[in-house]
Amino acid sequence: MTDRYTSIVDVLMLPYRDDGRMPLLRRAHDQYAPGQLTVVGGHLEDGESPLEGAIREAEEELGIWINPRDAEFCGLFQFVAADGARRLGAAWVTRAWEGTPTNNEPDKHSELLWAEPGDPPRDCHPYTQGVLRHFVEGTMYAVITAEPAATGGVA
């Protein structure tokens, strides 16, 4: 008998402004992926649905509230890190929210910037690069692989 697969589940929310830009957060230097840009998201917590988790992450990180009816599922991703570790991520996109997006967690993020998903900054984390690329392409499922010993590409 083989071991049952287990994975961290990432929940991602992609707020989308009328000008086509999405918020990216630069990780503080004492956080996971220090100095790199990431999409809004985090880990699914016990007892919540993936959509509830994505909405919670947007509230925690950006200080905005999203009505679940305004969130549209846009992808399921498996990220394979350079060391072979794997994680699953579920993503939603929204064009509607309450509040003004700000860097609501300055202890975790040093910067909030708005970027064009089809032309993201080069210093995005490989997972973020892949999520944005597949969002633009309309891909609903993808495996995103970080290149060994790389700080940035995806396969």
UniProtKB/TrEMBL annotation:
It holds the Pfam family NUDIX. Keywords: Hydrolase. The keyword 4Fe-4S does not apply. It comes from the Bacteria. Signal peptide: none annotated. InterPro entries: NUDIX_hydrolase-like_dom_sf, NUDIX_hydrolase_CS, NUDIX_hydrolase_dom. Residues 3-137 form the Nudix hydrolase domain. Transmembrane segments: none annotated. This is Nudix hydrolase domain-containing protein. The lineage of its organism: Bacteria, Bacillati, Actinomycetota, Actinomycetes, Kitasatosporales.
